[in-house]
Design a protein that fits this description.
alpha+beta, two-stranded antiparallel ribbon
Length: 71
């Protein structure tokens, strides 16, 4: 089994990762604006209701307090 120096491996991967978009001519996109408080709360409520619906319908099965299975 070959041995890999983790620091060298990460350095090499980072160089390739950042080099590829530049070679392809891609530019960094603008950041999206953050959600307002009311919109964020609405989205969280919709996520919670979807979660409860999946639990009640049996699509999502709770195995433990932090473990789930999608059926």
């Amino acid at each position: 089994m070959r041995k890999i120096n983790y620091d060298d491996f990460i350095k090499e991967k980072k160089e390739k990762y950042f080099e590829a978009p530049a070679l392809l001519g891609r530019k960094r996109l603008a950041k999206r604006k953050p959600h307002e408080a009311e919109e964020r709360n609405s989205l969280m409520m919709l996520d919670y209701l979807r979660y409860r619906d999946w639990i009640n319908s049996g699509i999502l099965v709770e195995l433990a307090p932090r473990k789930y299975r999608i059926t």
